[in-house]
Amino acid sequence: MFLKRVCSALLALAVLLGLGAFALHAARERAFSLPAGQWINDAVTGRLRQSDLLEGLAPEVLRLGGAKEQNGIFITESGLIEDIPAGKEAVINANVAGIAACIAGANTPASVMLIPTAAAVKQSELPANADLYNQKALILSVYSNLAGVAGAADAYAELFGAREETIFCRPSSQLTGLGGYYVYRALAARLGLAAHRLDEFEIENLESDFIGELVERSGYRRVQPDLLSLYRYTRASRVGTVTCWREGVPYTYTTLYPAHLEALGRPSDVLLGGACERLDIAYSAHRGNSLLLFADETAQAYVPFLATHYRRLTVIDPRIASRETLAAVDPADYDRMVFACSVRTFSQEEIFARFAA
User: Would you give the DSSP letter of residue 301?
Assistant: First the structure.
């Protein structure tokens, strides 16, 4: 490891020396009008990105030079972590109002769960002077505003307690299967369910490497790829159907993990059939309750665990669901309903606002 770091440092030094004249010229022209160090970052990044061959070196050179953030992405030892922007107050208020309006129009008991991102959970890995959005304060504020209307699931405490484990993907802002398990535990506690132990699930890894969206955004390609993990409950064998609706067209499978999609070049779609506006999981021979879940893409990580408790579970992403899809769902047909998404989604996108329209 030491030798590798020395070689990387020597490479970075060679590149920087080659760019010295360019950097000094840029410094003279700008008369040091920028904060100390910022001009060299701009110079190095701009110069390297003129070459496709050297483009991937730019973030590495900056990282070795002390820079920890690139295009809103923190480069850490454990992976890439997105620095989410400050929440939009109008969006947050609209989402709170939408949840309240939806609950008011139904007699179905409701819960809400906001899931913190890696920037909040793994903040100890980030620079001490990083100006981070206070996700915990937002979560507490939303829960307070909905007190007496919806119960609150504490995903923050569960994830923070497991922060030393691999709960977020290295090249992506997504939760891993293990992270999904901890979110499931938080929601199970709120819903009055006895959460299954982790050792009751069999873990299978897909063969395809998972390269997430943060790699492209940061330009840093030396992060280790992930393998998507599938968690199969081993204590009960149930036959059911999983129907994923896209633009009104149903795609039906007999498993939570349609593995053939990996061979078709769609490894991420192996998780519950991929992103869709509506997902229905039904077990005809299983006694139990039903759950309606309004959620963003984070649901893919914890729904496989949650589905083991219900005879019917419907997941709807209000951001992409059509009016017809929303109109076809009646909360009164379910025993419980949950509103859940990441803090990033809740603070930046009007995911639940349309319920107040």
Answer: H
- Rounded to whole angstroms, the Cα distance separating 145 from 152 reads 11
Give dist(CA 337, CA 292) in Å, integer.
4
User: How far lies 337's CA from each of 90, 194, 291, 293, 315, in Å?
Assistant: 25, 18, 6, 6, 10
Q: How far apart are CA 291 and CA 280, in angstroms?
A: 10
Q: Is 57 helix (H, G, I), strand (E, B) or coil?
A: helix
DSSP, collapsed to helix, strand or coil, labels residue 229 as strand
Q: What are the b/e assignments for 274-298, b being 16+ CB within 10 Å?
A: bbbbbbbbbbeeeeeebbbbbbbbb
What sign does the CA torsion over 274, 194, 139, 168 have? negative
Q: Is 70 exceeded by the pLDDT of residue 182?
A: yes
Are the C-beta atoms of 64 and 15 separated by less than 8 Å? no
Q: The tokens of 231 are what?
A: 């968690």
pLDDT digits (tens, 9 = 90+) for 77-86: 878 899 999 9
CB–CB of 314/293 below 8 Å?
Answer: yes
- pLDDT over 60 at 341, yes or no: yes
Instruction: Tell me the domain boundaries of the chain.
Output: 2-67, 84-356
Is there a contact between 112 and 339 (Cβ–Cβ < 8 Å)? Answer: yes
pLDDT tens, residue by residue, 59-108? 444 444 444 777 788 888 878 899 999 999 999 999 999 999 999 989 89
Q: Is the pLDDT of residue 22 over 70?
A: no
Q: Please state whether the predicted TM-score (pTM) of the whole model is above 0.85.
A: no
